[in-house]
Amino acid sequence: MKNKGGEPILLAVTGASGAIYSLNFMKILKDLGQEVHLIVSEAGELVSRLEIKEDGYQAMIQMAHTVYKADDLAAAPASGSSRWQAMVILPCTMGTLASIAHGFSQNLIHRAADCFLKERRPLVLVPREAPLNRNHLRNMLLAEEAGASIYPAMPGFYSQPKDIDEMASFFAGRLVEFLGLRVDGLKRWDGIIER
Ligand SMILES: Cc1cc2nc3c(=O)[nH]c(=O)nc-3n(C[C@H](O)[C@H](O)[C@H](O)COP(=O)(O)O)c2cc1C
Fold first, then answer.
1. 94 lines ligand 1 (CB under 6 A)
2. pLDDT digits (tens, 9 = 90+) for 131-187
3. Whole-angstrom Cα Rg for the chain
4. Which is the most buried residue in 91, 101, 139, 160, by most CB within 10 A?
C-alpha cells in the first residue's frame, strides 16, 4: 500500500535499547512510500551503532528523507509551523521522557516534541527501561496528560515470532498502524485455532 500525499512522519531515535525497532519502523514506512524525517540524539547514535551495527545504522539513515542534527535548534521541527503527520520517539529514554514531561527543550528532539504537544499533534513516546522508578512512572503520566501517547516497548509474543527481527517487525508494524496507516501482511489475531 502506498500512502501518497500524507505529511511526513518525524522519527526521533534516542539512546535507549531498541534500535532494531527503529530500523524495522523505517523499513515498513519506506515500503508504504511514507516520507520520514529523522533526528538521532548523540546517545541514540551510540546505542544504535552498538545494537544494529554500522550497516543497520547507515541503512536507517539512508531511508530517511531528511536527517536533522539533534543540536540544530533552528531546524524545521523546532517550529510549530512545520507540517508533520505525527512524531514518534522510538526508543525513548527516561531522560528524553523527563525533558518532554517537564517542558525542558534542551535539544531538537525535546523542542519538536514540545511543539507537537502545543499544536495538539500526535506525539508517540516508546519508552524502554526496566524496572521503572516512580519518577519514570510520574513522567509518563505527565507526558500523557499533556497530550502524548505512551506506547511502551513491550512486544507481544502471540504472533509467534521466529527470531528477534520478526518480533521487532511485528512491534513496529503495530506502531505504524497506531499512527493510522495500514500495514498489509501484518499478522492479526484471529482467535485460538484448535489443533
Ligand atoms: C548501551 C546503552 C543502553 C542504554 N539503554 C537505556 C534504556 O534502555 N533506557 C534509558 O532510559 N536509557 C538507556 N541508556 C542511557 C541513555 O543513553 C542516557 O541516559 C542518555 O543520556 C540519554 O540521552 P538521550 O535521551 O538524549 O538519547 C543506555 C545507554 C547505553 C550506553
1. yes
2. 999 999 999 999 999 999 999 999 999 889 999 999 999 999 999 999 999 999 898
3. 16
4. 91
